[in-house]
Design a protein that fits this description.
The chain has about 140 residues and is α/β, with parallel strands linked by helices. Helix content is about 30%, strand content about 25%. Strands 3-2-1-4-5 form a 5-stranded mixed beta sheet.
């Protein structure tokens, strides 16, 4: 019987001005990328995902799952990160999950391994969003 292929997991954290991406292979971190995204997160996140994959000479096809930091944190930052993660998961037909706390990545990897994921992942903002009410 052949060797089982490596499982690459993409981890995304976008709850603060400094965004973070990680790639884990079989539970061990193989790459990380942090950048000051702040108000340019929507412009930079996909470019940075390509950058971290290029760093490892791997493609999206080799990603077996995605873990997002669930929050709480920046409402807009979390929405952008989760939008990117959910879109990639859908397009690549791979699982996506959200996890929080200090060990969010390991928790998310464990959830993926245990089959604890859905079709989409959703953030936890920590408070109801403050949105402008429609004018009458």
């Amino acid at each position: 019987m052949g060797k089982k292929p490596a499982m690459n997991i993409l981890a995304i954290r976008t709850d603060k001005p400094q965004a973070e991406l990680y790639v884990y292979q079989n539970g061990a971190k193989t790459a990380e990328l942090k950048w000051q995204a702040h108000r340019r997160l929507a412009e930079t996140i996909n470019v940075k995902i390509d950058e971290i994959l290029d760093l490892l000479s791997i493609s999206l096809d080799s990603i077996g799952g995605i873990v997002c930091y669930s929050g709480p944190g920046s409402f807009t930052g979390l929405r952008i990160g989760f939008s990117a993660a959910n879109a990639l998961a859908f397009a690549c037909d791979i699982p996506v999950t959200a996890s929080g706390g200090k060990d969010w990545i390991q928790g998310g990897i464990s959830d993926l391994a245990a089959g604890k994921f859905g079709k989409i992942a959703a953030p936890e903002y920590g408070a109801p969003p403050r949105t402008t009410k429609p004018k009458k």
